[in-house]
Every structure is written in C-alpha cells, then in structure tokens.
Amino acid sequence: AQKVTQAQTEISVVEKEDVTLDCVYETRDTTYYLFWYKQPPSGELVFLIRRNSFDEQNEISGRYSWNFQKSTSSFNFTITASQVVDSAVYFCALSETTSGTYKYIFGTGTRLKVLA
Amino acid sequence: GAGVSQSPRYKVAKRGQDVALRCDPISGHVSLFWYQQALGQGPEFLTYFQNEAQLDKSGLPSDRFFAERPEGSVSTLKIQRTQQEDSAVYLCASRAGGYNEQFFGPGTRLTVL
Fold first, then answer.
1. Of A77, A85, B55, B111, which sits with the fewest C-beta atoms within 10 Å of its C-beta?
2. Residues of B with CB below 8 A from A100's CB?
3. Contact assignment for A108 to B41 by CB distance below 8 Å
4. Which tens digit of pLDDT belongs to each residue from B63-76?
C-alpha cells in the first residue's frame, strides 16, 4: 500500500542550527514522484521541491537540501542555518503514476519551531 | 490573480446545514484537486477533475459530499447535512498537467457546531 511516514511530529531548534526532516515512503510503483511542501501558520501549502523516482541526485537550493535514497525509500530534507521564518509544518508527499491522477499521499507532517 | 483562491476562508455551520465551498484555480490549469485536512494531520485526497470531468472521487467520505466543475474552471465542493466530523480545512489545488506540482489555495476552514 502507498504510504508516507514522517516520524518526527515536532522539532525545536535554535536559530542557525541545521535540522533534518525525515520522510519514508512505501509504494509498489516503479515510477513515482516525491514532493516537499511548507505550510506556514497562514495555512497555504507552499511547494518546495519535486523529485522523480529515476533521479537520485541530491539537490541544493540555498539553505535547503534534499537527500533521496531509493534503497531506503527515504527523501529527507535538511535546512542549514535555520531561521525563525523557517518555522512551519513541513509535509512530504508521494504521487504515483498508476493512479492516472497523480494525486498526493501526504505524510502527517513535521512541525518545525526555530527559536531566536 | 496569480494563485489559487478559495472562498469563504472560514465557514461555521450548524449540524445538518448544507455548505458550498468555492475554488478558483490558476488560469489554464486543467487539473483540479480537493483535499481535506483534519487538525494536526496531513491533507487527504477527496476528488480530482480534469477539465470538467470528475475522473476520481474515491476519497469522498460519503454521499453527502459532492463536487462539480461544470465549465472546467471554477469548482464547488458541496457538503449536505453537515456533521461534526466534517469539521476540517478543505484545500483546493490546481496543476498544469501530468506529474507537475500542485499549487494550493489558502483553504476553507469549516467548523460544524
């Protein structure tokens, strides 16, 4: 069955610390897509990154980086030198191709609190 | 507007009332999704439209939930005879096509008393 697990319910860090948010997924598809979204207190989900199952290259965007490891079915997200503005709930999502709709299956989210 | 908009942002209904939630997707986006997000949980899929066709409604929790997109743009999610368990944030998302990322609206927070 398709499933996304974000085992960390809440993480608190002090500003400038690095933090890694974990995401583990389950799927029977060979072709699928993984996403990370940020949900600030305003509630709107903000797209951060998309990764397809054939591209295992890690990606860096400013202070953000993502580590995709197919062997462990993980797609972890690291924020370097965290800032207070990074405080939000972060969701990992899986999109399978066999459904035809590419609908998302979300994890339960990780609430990140960055303290000044 | 550049993004997905939803209205109303907040809705309070008495148990048994009908409600209608509106979504305006990004112009030109053929795909439209509705998700339900309970407090402290991740969003859960409700239904999917490609243009005006509702291709997947497998996530609708009961026959009290109904969605439409008659002209392939604006969509309405209707909940009949609301129950307390319907209280949640209802998110709408649109997508240009295929495997591209979905863009989400701000959501409608529904509270059923």
1. A85
2. 55-56
3. yes
4. 999 999 999 999 99
The radius of gyration of chain A's CA atoms, rounded to the nearest angstrom, is: 14
- Can you tell me the distance from the alpha carbon of B44 to that of B90, in angstroms, rounded to the nearest whole number? 9
Chain A interface disruption, residue of B92, B102, B109, most A CBs within 10 A = B102
Nearest residue of chain A to residue B50 (CA atoms): A101
pLDDT averaged per 10 residues in sequence order, chain A, 116 residues:
94 97 95 95 92 88 94 96 97 88 94 97
Q: What is the pLDDT of residue A96?
A: 83
CB within 8 Å: B43 and A106: yes
Q: Is B40 helix (H, G, I), strand (E, B) or coil?
A: coil
Q: Do A101 and B55 touch (CB under 8 A)?
A: yes
Nearest by CB: A50 against B35, B101, B107: B101
**Token pair for A95:** 């999109």
B61-108: pLDDT as tens digits: 999 999 999 999 999 999 999 999 999 999 999 998 777 899 999 999
